[in-house]
Design brief:
Layout (H helix, E strand, L loop, with lengths): L1 E4 L2 E4 L10 H5 L2 E9 L2 E2 L2 H14 L8 H14 L5 E8 L16 E8 L5 H6 L1 E5 L20 H12 L4 E5 L5 E4 L3 E6 L2 E5 L9 H12 L3 E5 L3 H5 L3 E6 L3 E8 L2 E2 L4 H22 L11
Parallel strand pairs: 7-8, 7-14, 11-12
Antiparallel strand pairs: 1-2, 1-6, 3-4, 3-5, 5-6, 8-9, 10-11, 10-13, 13-14, 14-15
Length: 297
Amino acid sequence: MFVYVNGKIVPTKEAVVSVFDHGFLYGDGVYETMKVYDGVVFMLGEHLQRLYRSASLIGLAVPSAADDLKIAIYETLMANSLRNAYVRVTVSRGPGAIGLDPDFCPVPTVVIITEDFKEYPAAYYENGISLIISETRRNLKEAINPQIKSLNFLNNILAKIEAKKKNTYEAVMLNSGGNLTEGTISNIAFYKNNTLCTPSIACGILDGITRGIVLDLARREGLKVKEGKFTKKDIYSAEEVFITNTTMEVMPVSKVDDRPYPVGKNAGLLRKLYRQEVKAYIANIKSDGPSLWGQSE
């Protein structure tokens, strides 16, 4: 396996970062994850736009232009001979003296990891997954802007630990006001009273790219969509629940805490429409001529 580190693609054993890197010492950095379908990185431009936004919000200058980063991602995929893959791009503050001052770190660290993507078990989509409403509250949006996709994931990890202790797949956090926000790695939606409901950005969530696509597809299909403030009582009384993220796409939920749900038709429909969207995107990219793999399709 090969990894991109600061402008070079090197074997895994040589892919090292300084112990003085502020990403390691303080979680000072940002990242994005992407999914690759048949050699095409889905929504690459949108993911990189969000990466640069996150970096800007913490005063971090990404040392590569977006087009150069795109090339680096595809070169790393090619080095690993991957056509269906998971991609993670990490930009940290970089190495520097111990201390919180960002000026200690003159050169950011950029790492690109690509791995073969293993599809989620079909049973997850057929039967749904379980989740809990965790006791761990989401970070205050006034303390840490949720639009920053930060390396500091301790809040999410604590909620994930709760989920594991209860033998559930995912945990959804409430904010300080008791409203639903998001999962540790996902956005959440539920269907109730003929309306597709999901927490609004104002609740303190990351504006998930998959979430946005799914909501657009729902509206296009004629479903009523409500982005707002919801409590756990709202989700307990829902008819159907699902979560979304880049890799799992649209995943049905069969249980929240002790409340069971059927695997509903809306999750199935939206996943089908999402896959169609992916296929159209891939076809459009490839229709421009030779692919970014340097091969004619």
